[in-house]
Design a protein that fits this description.
The chain is α/β, with parallel strands linked by helices. The chain is built from 23 helices and 20 strands. It has three domains: 109 residues, no CATH class; 205 residues, Toll/interleukin-1 receptor homology (TIR) domain (Rossmann fold, 3-Layer(aba) Sandwich), CATH 3.40.50.10140; 236 residues, no CATH class. The strands form five sheets. The chain has a seven-stranded mixed sheet with strand order 3-5-4-8-9-10-11, sandwiched between helices. Strands 16-17-12-18-19-20 form a six-stranded mixed sheet. The protein is elongated, with a radius of gyration of 30 Å. The N and C termini lie far apart (115 Å).
Length: 608
C-alpha cells in the first residue's frame, strides 16, 4: 500500500469446497479475481472445484479471465501434468519465480509473491525481494530465538548427566508456526528431567532443491563421531523412511536407539474420542503401518488436526495440530523409560518376564505358539547372566516350570485360599491397591465395579490382600500373566470387547511397576491377553485397558514370525517391540521315548 499497491486475498481449503454450492461460490469469486492460484497435493482430486473452474476458464474471454497458476507439490505426476496444461505462462521465468515463492513457503515469501504478482499483472514497480530459501533443517526450541547452532545449543541446554531425547519433525511445521504439539513434547520432556534435541527438516533429499535430508540430521544432530548422542528418538512424521529408497534403509539401525512413533492424526479429537476404531483408516496406513516398516514402536496419539477458526483476512479455514497433554506425557514417560535402559548398568536393570496362561490351568502355563517358552526363557536367562544381569540359574526349562508351579498360579481348583496365600510370591494390601484404583479414570473404575464388584473383587484375594503369581530371582521377576476372568467363563472373557479386567489384572502390572520396580517387561510368545483387552484398535486413550495395563513400561515381545496379523495388535495396542522367532522345524510325527521302544519290539515280533 505504501508504494501504491492494494491486494485482497481470498483463500479456501479443500474442506471448504466439499459440496456443489461451495464450489460454485468459489468459482464465481475466482472468475472475478485477477489471479487464481491452485495448490494441488494429490492431483486434481485434491481440489474439488477443479472441473467447474476449468470449464469456467475455458468459457471466459482470454483477454479478461484471471491469470491461473497451478502449483504442483513433490513428485505428483497428475499435478505436474495439470500445471503444464492449464497454468498461464507455464515454464516461463515468471511461472518459475511464482513456483519458487510457493515452494519455499513462509510468510515472507508469500508477501513477496503478492508484490511480484502486482508488478506482473499491473505493471507496477513495487519493491520485490527474490524468493528466499529458509533453513531446510535446524534446531527449534520454544525458548530459543531463531535457529541456534548445534554446539551452542548443546552447551546451553543439554546436561550430559541426564537422558537425551531426539525429536524430529517436518520443516513445514516450523515454517508455518504449527508447533503447539512440538512445544508440548519439548516442555514435557524437560519437565520429566531429560534433555531434548528438537530438529525440523525436509525428510527426503531433493536433487532440485539441494537439501541434505534425514541422513544428515541423524549424523549431524543425533550422533557424535559415529556414536548416538541421544538414547531415544520420537518421530511424529508419517509414512516410512526406509521404504523411500536404499539410502535410508540402514539409517535408523545405524543410529541404534529405540524410535517411538508419536501418532499425529489427520482427524479431529472429538471423532477419535467417540470411535471404537480410534484413528481413521488413512491414519492406520500413514501413521502406523508404514512407520512399522522402519521398526518404529507405535505409541499413542499426541495431536489432532483441528479446523475451528477462519482466517479473518482471507476467510480460509485454519488447520493446526492441537496436543493432548495427558497423551503427550504418557508418550514421554514411555520414551524416557526406553532411554534409561541404555543408561542403567545390566547389573542394576530389573526385568519382569511374563508367561502366558490360557486357559488358566496348570497344564497350560507357558503356552506359546511354536515356542518352547520355558526352554527359551532358560536360554534367555543364561544370556542375561553373561551380560551382567543379577539372577539365579536354572538347569533346564522344566526346572523353571516347576519353580512357577510351586507358587500361586491362575488355576484355583487345587489350593485353598490359605494355601494360595502361603505360596504367593507377591502380594498387595489395601494401602497399595486402593491407591492404584484411584489412578484409574472414573469410567474405568465404574466398569470394573459393574463387572467384578468393588475393589479388590474376589479373584485371588485372601484376607483383604491381592495375591500374585511368580517369584523374584535377583533382578528378574518371573511370573504368569493374570487371568482375564474365571476358568469357567474364560472362553467368553478372553476376547470380549466390552468386559473389563478383574481388579487383580491391573493391580499385578502395577505391582510390577511400583513394588518390583521393573525397568522393562518381556511377554513370552504368541499370545497373551493384554493386547486384546477392551479399548480402541489404534490410538489408545487413557481409558483403554491395554494402555492401563502396560502403562509406560517398555514391552519386549518375542513372537512367532508367521502371524503378523495378531502380532500387529501387540505392536499397536501395547507399544510392543516385537522380536520375531522362526517357526518350529518340521519333522515326522513319530513315536518317542517308551512308546518308540514298544513299537520296535512289536516290529521285531512280527518278523520273528
Amino acid at each position: 500500500r505504501d508504494q501504491g499497491g492494494r491486494i485482497t486475498v481470498r483463500a479456501r481449503t479443500r474442506e471448504q469446497l466439499a459440496d456443489s454450492r461451495q464450489q460454485e461460490a468459489f468459482v464465481r469469486r475466482a472468475m472475478a479475481a485477477d489471479v487464481v492460484i491452485i495448490c494441488l497435493h494429490g492431483g486434481k482430486p485434491s481440489f474439488p472445484a477443479w472441473d467447474r473452474l476449468i470449464a469456467a476458464m475455458a468459457a471466459a474471454d482470454p483477454a479478461t479471465r484471471p491469470h491461473l497458476h497451478v502449483q504442483p507439490s513433490g513428485g505428483d505426476e497428475d499435478a505436474q501434468a495439470a500445471a503444464a496444461e492449464y497454468s498461464h505462462g507455464f515454464g516461463t521465468p515468471a511461472w518459475e519465480t511464482m513456483g519458487r515463492y510457493l515452494d519455499l513457503g513462509g510468510a515472507g515469501n508469500h508477501c513477496q509473491l503478492l508484490r511480484f504478482l502486482h508488478n506482473l499483472l499491473f505493471g507496477t514497480s513495487l519493491e520485490c525481494a527474490p524468493p528466499e530459501r529458509l533453513p531446510d533443517e535446524g534446531i527449534y526450541h520454544p525458548d530459543c530465538d531463531g535457529v541456534p547452532e548445534l554446539a551452542d545449543y548443546l552447551a546451553r541446554r543439554v546436561d550430559p548427566d541426564r537422558p537425551t531425547v531426539g525429536l524430529w519433525f517436518y520443516q513445514t511445521y516450523w515454517l508455518n508456526h504449527n508447533l503447539a504439539f512440538i512445544d508440548a513434547l519439548v516442555r514435557s520432556i524437560e519437565a520429566h528431567g531429560a534433555n531434548v534435541i528438537p530438529v525440523f527438516h525436509l525428510r527426503y533429499r531433493d536433487a532440485d532443491r539441494g537439501n541434505r535430508g534425514a541422513d544428515y540430521v541423524v549424523e549431524h544432530f543425533f550422533m557424535d563421531r559415529g556414536r548416538p548422542r541421544i538414547q531415544v528418538l520420537i518421530n511424529p512424521m508419517l509414512f516410512s523412511l526406509s521404504m523411500a529408497g536404499q539410502a535410508y534403509e540402514d539409517l535408523l539401525p545405524r543410529l541404534g536407539v529405540p524410535c517411538l512413533q508419536a501418532l499425529v492424526s489427520m482427524g479431529d479429537r472429538a471423532s477419535w474420542q467417540a470411535s471404537d476404531q480410534g484413528l481413521p483408516s488413512s491414519d492406520v496406513s500413514f501413521a502406523a503401518a508404514q512407520p512399522e516398516f522402519d521398526g518404529n514402536l507405535i505409541t499413542v496419539p499426541v495431536a489432532f488436526r483441528e479446523q475451528k477458526e477462519r482466517d479473518p483476512v482471507t476467510g480460509g479455514l485454519l488447520a493446526c495440530y492441537e496436543p493432548i497433554t495427558e497423551r503427550v506425557d504418557k508418550l514421554v514417560r514411555l520414551a524416557l523409560n526406553w532411554a534409561r535402559l541404555a543408561r542403567i548398568p545390566a547389573s542394576q536393570r530389573r526385568v519382569a518376564i511374563i508367561f502366558h496362561h490360557y486357559p488358566p490351568r496348570d497344564d497350560r502355563i507357558g503356552c506359546a505358539a511354536g515356542l518352547d517358552s520355558f526352554a527359551s526363557v532358560r536360554l534367555l536367562l543364561d544370556r542375561m547372566r553373561q551380560e551382567g544381569y543379577r539372577l539365579d540359574s536354572f538347569a533346564s526349562g522344566d526346572e523353571l516350570a516347576e519353580a512357577l508351579l510351586a507358587g500361586v498360579t491362575a488355576d484355583r481348583r487345587w489350593l485353598t485360599p490359605e494355601r494360595m496365600a502361603a505360596r504367593a510370591g507377591a502380594t498387595a494390601g489395601p494401602e497399595r491397591y486402593l491407591a492404584w484404583n484411584d489412578e484409574l479414570p472414573p469410567d474405568v473404575r465404574a466398569a470394573m465395579e459393574r463387572d467384578w464388584g468393588e475393589v479388590p473383587g474376589e479373584l485371588f484375594v485372601h484376607q483383604g490382600r491381592l495375591l500374585f503369581a511368580g517369584f523374584v530371582s535377583g533382578n528378574v521377576f518371573l511370573t504368569i500373566q493374570p487371568p482375564r476372568g474365571t476358568l469357567e467363563n474364560i472362553d467368553r472373557a478372553y476376547h470380549d470387547p466390552r468386559l473389563s479386567t478383574p481388579h487383580h489384572y491391573l493391580a499385578q502390572y502395577r505391582w510390577i511397576r511400583d513394588v518390583f520396580r521393573a525397568d522393562a517387561v518381556v511377554h513370552v510368545g504368541k499370545h497373551g491377553s493384554l493386547e486384546w483387552l477392551p479399548g480402541k484398535a489404534l490410538g489408545l486413550s487413557r481409558s483403554c485397558f491395554p494402555d492401563l495395563a502396560i502403562m509406560e513400561l517398555p514391552n519386549i515381545y518375542p513372537y512367532i514370525i508367521n502371524d503378523p496379523g495378531e502380532g500387529t495388535q501387540a505392536k499397536r495396542r501395547s507399544a510392543a517391540c516385537i522380536v520375531d522367532h522362526l517357526t518350529p522345524a518340521l519333522t515326522n510325527a513319530d513315536l518317542y521315548e517308551d512308546l518308540a521302544g514298544v513299537e520296535r519290539l512289536v516290529r521285531e515280533y512280527t518278523v520273528a
